[in-house]
Structure formats: structure tokens, C-alpha cells
Amino acid sequence: MTATLHVAPQVGEKDDVDERVVRRKLGPGRRIRFAFWVGPLLVLAVWSAGSATGLIKPAILTAPWDVVEAFRDQWAEHDLLGNILSSLTRAVLGLTFGVLAGVLLALVSGLSRIGESVFDGPIQIKRSIPTLALIPLFIAWFGIDQEMKVVTIALISLVPIYVHTHNGLRSIDGKYAELAETIGIGRTEFVRHVVLPGALPGFLLGMRFAVTSALLGLVVVEQYNATSGIGHMMTLAGQYGQTDVIVVGLVIYGVFGYLADTAVRFTGRRVLAWRRTLDD
User: Fold this and answer.
1) Mean pLDDT across the chain, nearest whole number?
2) What is the rounded CA–CA span in Å between residue 221 and residue 215?
3) Distance from C-alpha of 24 to C-alpha of 259, rounded to nearest angstrom
4) Which domains does the chain have, with CATH numbers?
5) What are phi and psi of 34, to 5 degrees?
6) Is 0.70 topped by the overall pTM?
7) How does pLDDT run across 87-110, given as a tens digit for each residue?
8) Angle CA(252)–CA(255)–CA(256) in degrees, nearest 5?
9) Which residue, 50, 177, 227, 236, could crosslink 56 as a Cys pair with Cβ 3.0–4.6 Å?
10) Burial of 10 (0-12, 13-18, 19+ CB in 10 A)
11) Residues 19-28: pLDDT tens digits?
12) Which residues does the UniProt record annotate as the domain ABC transmembrane type-1 (predicted)?
């Protein structure tokens, strides 16, 4: 008979107790339903009020209703849907490759001393080199079309996934390893039941940074010889002084990022229900 090591419930119980204590210290209050919409709606309200009263000049920032009108015009007359799909395709492809590569490298480096000595150093060096500074090299290697854009987004997404997942793998409490040795748990089962679940919070935190990084990369690469996409639309708008269309693009980028971050946080709540934190 093989012994099985279960640590998640105990950790979850401790975290729930800690959360209740912290909440009592911070003050009473109930969780606000759909709280993640409060901030954006407040920003929209301030923006609308400023535009309506003239405090925010159109030359500084287009009014929300003018942005809505520009959105309708771009949708009906300039294939806005096609531009959105083109940008989403680049972002999703780059993010997917970056996440897969980051997780694989983190597992090899985090679970093996040899793997860590081979991969960790180069990736730490890469962290000090902004990925966007490598775009001229990527253009020379991959050309200026879709491949360069996807590779840039993938590489810029890889680093946060690797760093936070690797940190999660390496920060497992040593008492669990001692307990596993005491009850005869093998390495494979220890990794499967303790190390990998313990690294999930780090991976999800890395995902939040990776999503933001992917959008940052998307904004930049779409300025290079793009014939479609939100960045292409914004570049044309800048040439013709269409600030309302530029704001449309910025809003779309912001919505992309906010929805993606919300999806990661929602997933984290479900997957890590036993490790709830204050910022959820």
C-alpha cells in the first residue's frame, strides 16, 4: 500500500484563519459583488463628468460619447472586427507559446539541479535585457511579418511565467519534504501531490504579469509593418490626427487586458479555493 501525502486542506484551513484575522484588523465589511467593475466604472464616471463640464478638453482626451461614435464608425466602415481578431490572434498565439515555454523551462529548472544550472542563468540574464530592445534582431531573423510579432510576444510573456513558477517550485516548505520521507512518499508522488499544487499560486501570479506583458508587446509590434490590427488602426489614425480613433484603440487594449486579468483571477479563486488571499 502506498501512502499519500495531503497538505492542501491543512494549508487552506490556516490561510482561511489568517484571512479572517486580517479582515477583523482592517475593519468590518462584506465582500462587494462584482467589485472588479467598481474601479473602471468610477474612472468612466470621472471621465464623462470632466468632458461634460469642460474640465477635460477634447484636444486632451476625447469625450466618451465621441469615442462610442468613433467605435461605431470603425465597426461599420473600417473593419474594426477584423482588426480586433487580428490583434487577438497575435496576442493569443504569442501568449500560448510563451506560457508553454515558460512552464517547461521552470519545471526543468525547478525540479532539477542540472536543469537549473543550464537554464536559470541565461533566463536571469534575459530579464535584464528588455525584449522590445531585441525587435531589430527579430526583424533580421524572422522578417517583419507575423512571425516576428508572435515571437516577440512569446518571449516577453515567457519571463514572468518562468520566474514566478520557478519560485513557486523552489519555495515549498521543507517540513513537507521531511514528512514525505517519514511516511515513505517517493519523489514522483511528492512532486505530483505537493510540489506542483504548491507552485500553482506562483504560476497564476506569473500569468497575470504575462498577460500584461503580452499586451505591451502587442502594442509595440503592431507598429511595425502591420496591415491589420488595433495598432495598425491607431497608426493610421495618428497620421490623420484622429484622436477619437486612437482612444478607441486604447480602450480596446485596456478591455483586453482587464478581462484577461479578471479571467486569471477568477480561475485562481476556483483552483485555489483553499488559499484565498486579500487581493482576491
Assistant:
1) 79
2) 10
3) 31
4) 64-271 (1.10.3720.10)
5) 55, 35
6) yes
7) 999 999 999 999 999 999 988 887
8) 85
9) 50
10) exposed
11) 445 455 545 5
12) 84-264
